[in-house]
Amino acid sequence: MDTCKVCGTILPFSGMKCPKCGYSKDGAGAPAGAGAGPAKMFNSDKHILIMNLTKFRDLLGENEELKGMIKPQSEFPMSDDQIYKKRSLFKFFWPFLLGGIGAGIVIYIISMIIMFSSAMSIATQPSVSDQQVQTFANHAMADIYGGYIVAIAVALAIIFMGLFISRRKRDAFNSNADMMNRIASERYQMGLKNERMIDIYQDNLASMRRYEDLVPAEYQTSQKVSLIIEALKEDHADTVEEAIALL
């Protein structure tokens, strides 16, 4: 397969006469009246220049877009592992458990101190009847059981209140940890995408080095290269320098 050197028509067989303008390799030109108008010479060097400039423009345009999207890698987490660990109920509950037990012990000790103080006051009296001693013993036993009950009640109240508060704190913390881990995972995926864009950007820079000599540095933008290509395609210019002079 070949192309006509006059009008650029694709020829199925190399060396055949052009069916459009009548050009053939033996030097014969187009027959009179053939074609829609005067034949236009095909400039292969110019065609290659336009192709190279088009590739250069595409690389420039992609890198201009990537440059606005790429962010510093320091803004993204380096791993997809869970950063915020969940906590168990005991992490929040243990202070209430110790506080409840401690409060119960303190209340019981205070009740015992009050009971022994009463016993000492009775023992120091000069005359105490057996009935009074028995009555005091009965009250002392009641105070001991009462101290038990009050201490246990206070301890249980603190423990159950702590259990309720601890559950709420645990659920709130774990829910927040899930949300933060999800955000971290999403940002990690964004970081991977950012890395791929950086790789594409650097590959494009390497590819553009083949075309940088075609256009002066101050005209190396996708918009300006597009204008140069347009001038060449419309035959307003035959070289990049001529196209730049028209801008």
Question: Gist?
Answer:
The protein is mostly helical. The chain contains five helices and two strands.
Counted by DSSP, the helix tally is: 5
Mean pLDDT: 82
> What structural class results from the helix and strand content?
mainly alpha
- Largest sheet data: 2 strands, antiparallel
Global Rg:
47 Å
The termini sit apart by 38 Å
**In total, how many beta strands?**
2
Q: How much of the polypeptide forms β-strand, as a percent range? A: under 5%
Structure overview:
By secondary structure, this protein is mostly helical. The protein has two domains: 1-42, no CATH class; 76-206. The chain has helices at residues 44-69, 89-123, 130-208, 222-233, 240-246; strands at residues 2-3, 10-11. Strands 1-2 form a two-stranded antiparallel sheet. β1 (2-3) and β2 form a beta hairpin. α1 (44-69) packs antiparallel against α4 and α4 (222-233) crosses α5. It is rod-shaped.
Write the layout of secondary structure elements.
Layout (H helix, E strand, L loop, with lengths): L1 E2 L6 E2 L32 H26 L19 H35 L6 H79 L13 H12 L6 H7 L1
Antiparallel strand pairs: 1-2
Quick tags:
2% strand, mainly alpha, 2 strands, 64% helix
